[in-house]
Amino acid sequence: MTKLLEQALEAVRVLSADEQDDIARVILQLAGNEDAAPAELSPEERKAIDKSKTAAARGEFASDEQVRAVWAHALPSR
Questions:
Q1: What is the end-to-end Cα distance of the chain in Å, rounded?
Q2: Residue 63 and residue 74: Cα distance in Å, rounded?
Q3: Integer-rounded Cα radius of gyration of the chain
């Protein structure tokens, strides 16, 4: 195992069980494990996706400025 992967696993250890499972699914997919179970969506998540698809079908998309604002809020300051 590489040092970088070991660092990543250490960082994941402090996350909640749900977050750890989400990351594990991504790792399994990237590693080519076809047996990885898909993430289950909550009813709220399904509703949000349906809403997004409907908006996209109408051509409603976030502006570049709106996307930058979301990322600026979501990413920790460095």
A1: 27
A2: 17
A3: 17
- The token pair that represents 57 in the structure block: 């079908």
Residue type at 68?
R
Read off the pLDDT of residues 19-73 as tens digits, 9 standing for 90 and up.
999 899 889 888 888 776 677 889 999 999 999 999 999 999 999 999 999 998 8
CA distance 51 to 49: 5
Asked whether 57 and 49 are in contact (CB, 8 A), the reply is no
Return the DSSP state at 48. H
pTM of the model: 0.47
The domain segmentation of the chain, as residue ranges, is 1-40, 42-78
